[in-house]
Amino acid sequence: MSNWLNFIASQLLWMAAVGGAARGLAWLGPLCLLLFAAVQLLPRFRARGDVGLMLLALPVGLVVDTTMAASGLLRYASPVPSAALAPVWILSLWMGFALTFNHSMSGIMRRPLLAIAFGALGGALSYWIASRTWGAVQFTDYCAAVLVPLAALWGAAMGLLSYATLRLARTPLPSSSGVPG
User: Fold this and answer.
1) How many helices and strands (H and E) does the chain possess?
2) Rounded to whole angstroms, how far apart are CA atoms 109 and 175?
3) How far, CA to CA in Å, does 113 sit from each of 95, 108, 119, 162, 168?
4) At what angle do helices 50-71 and 143-169 cross, to 10 degrees?
5) Is the residue at 38 inside a domain?
6) Does some domain include residue 175?
7) Would you give the DSSP letter of residue 83?
8) Range of the domain at 64
9) C-alpha dihedral over 27, 33, 39, 41, to 10 degrees?
10) Which secondary structure element, helix H or strand E, spans residue 94, and what is its range?
11) Span 77-81, average pLDDT
């Protein structure tokens, strides 16, 4: 899948998950993730580390969004499985987002400081858009009180995921003796 198609598919996933959650369709995000992943993980499109990044993005997203839910600063539409945890639809977004790290987002993810800045700004902005245009999340305090911790969590998450992207993309060096090493 070209980087442009990867980007477009990830944006369609975001709109389906956020729009679905806003309308009580928590299953729409995970369904669209399955479709996106089924294509992106085909051998001809998959990059080294894609599966590992998806699996890492799941607990990272769980921590970030459960922290925001537990703080009481955000309320999620369609809070499946529980209002105390990150909803399944947003976890599908984290996993789908990870499928862009070696593709349409590779220029950012291969530069950790840029990834941190992008996460802090872009992550917070995406929640603001989801709140204002779709109603998929609700800010329970004034905007800055929600966006500052959200930006900090997203910046930290993207720093970790950038490091993982770099580590998982590395290919092992061949050993001259034929012995792995």
Assistant:
1) 8, 2
2) 28
3) 21, 9, 10, 9, 18
4) 160
5) yes
6) no
7) T
8) 3-169
9) -130
10) helix 88-98
11) 95
For the record, the structure tokens of 29 come out as 């995000």
Q: What is the DSSP letter of 87?
A: -
- For residue 100, being part of any structural domain is answered with yes
- CA dist., res. 61 & res. 92, Å (int): 9
Tell me if 65 sits within 8 A of 91, measured CB to CB: yes
Q: Which structure tokens are listed for 84?
A: 């105390």
**pLDDT per residue over 40-75, tens digit each?**
999 999 899 999 999 999 999 999 999 999 999 999
pLDDT band at residue 181 under the 50/70/90 scheme: very low
Residue with tokens 């800010």: 139
Q: Strand ranges (DSSP E) for 56-164?
A: 74-76, 137-139
Burial of 168 (C-beta count, 10 Å sphere; 0-12/13-18/19+):
middle
Domain count, the chain: 1
Kindly tell me if the per-residue pLDDT of 165 is higher than 50: yes
- Is 73 a domain residue? yes
Residue with tokens 């499928």: 99
pTM of structure: 0.91
